[in-house]
Amino acid sequence: MAPAPPVGAGFFPLDEELGLAAGSLTPQLLEWLVRLAAWMPFARAVQLLEAITKVSVGKETARRQTEQAGKLVEEEQDAQARRLMDVRQEVKQEQDEPAARQVFSADGAMVPLVHGVWAEVKLLVVAQQARDKEGRMQLVKPSYYARMVEAQDFADLALVETRRRGLEDARQVAAVTDGAVWLQGLIEVLCPQAVRILDFPHAAQRLSESAQEVQAAGTVLPDDWLKSQLHTLKHEEPATMLATLRSWHKHDPNLEKVAENLAYLEKREAQMQYWQYQAQEWPIGSGMVESGHKQVMQVRLKGPGMHWAPGNVNPMLALRTAVCNDRWDETWQHQSLAVQQRTHERRVARIQQRVMAARRALLALLTQRQAVAPPPLPLKTRQAAVAVEPCASTSRRSARPAATHPWRRRLLPPKKMS
Q1: Assigned domain for 122 exists
Q2: What is the pTM of this model?
Q3: Is 267 found in the same domain as 294?
Q4: What is the DSSP annotation of 252-275?
Q5: Cα dihedral 324, 329, 334, 338 sign
Q6: Res. 92 pLDDT band, cuts 50 70 90
Q7: Distance between CA atoms of 105 and 236, rounded to whole angstroms?
Q8: E strand intervals along 270-369
Q9: CA distance 176 to 198
Q10: CATH code, domain with 302
Q11: What is the pLDDT of residues 127-149, one digit of tens each?
């Protein structure tokens, strides 16, 4: 028996109606697999999935499905950001109820890539302020946005999260950062009216570095000098601390750290009014972004032996922010709709390709027949032929059968008259 001919891809309408994607996993199993892989390494994710559902999936399948899903989530978020940046469009975006007081912070952390390369992942954290039972102001409901992109691109893309949180509509907003130039540009894009606060531990570190260099140069400082200066910086104007640095620089201009830190802190004097910020109950440290790095990026992307291809970092960050923001159901729904839309578009494209191929084949066949057909006779010749040739069909219609023709015989004998 001859082997069956190969078949191509088919389409079953019920698959599209039920939202079934290509592959052997049901939509529910696929969601569970990707969600587990967003929390833990791929090998552990497939082990846990098998323990819960008794369905065995390979590690590479988990990796491929997770990367594909993360890529769709990343593309959807980027598309939302592009629509927000296009001022010509009125974008209706799902938005939380804006809190009266909000705080945001951002920073960068390194992630290991393949071939021993490291790259910076930028993280934005947005939280609202609310009082606890004792009446103290606390940061609650933090949400995250992370990408491995350039600073300007990150500022534009992060609009998706700040608009969703209603940052622009909040009555009071504070931005606590370490004072880097790219972070100042980020504040200008996201919320230029925010109160800018230089992270107090960052200012303290620069003061400590300057004191260490002065002591190494031979100046003797009291043991509690740094503690006293930091207390003054926190509860008074920063002018006292800056005056100390200026005197050190004037006494010895060759102290590089003193000169560098003095120039840095002088530019940010307006962001070091810590006594004022504390009176207004603003945080003066960016600890929330440091803990955000651990929760969003380090837990999943900096495990033992992990090295990521550059193209897979942002898809995983998109999934991580979805689970850490408690917005998985909404994110997966958008992802599923994107898969169905792409499947439908590919099917329509295949149908159009087959239709065009059939048209080309038909056109080629007509062209071939026209090429081999004899040339038509001249008009006069055709008219003469019609005039002399008898019409066989007409003669056949006018001929009558003979009397002895079988058609004229009676099928039944004649009735006898009684």
Answers
A1: yes
A2: 0.78
A3: no
A4: -TT-HHHHHHHHHHHHTGGG--HH
A5: positive
A6: very low
A7: 24
A8: none
A9: 6
A10: 3.30.420
A11: 999 998 888 999 999 999 999 99
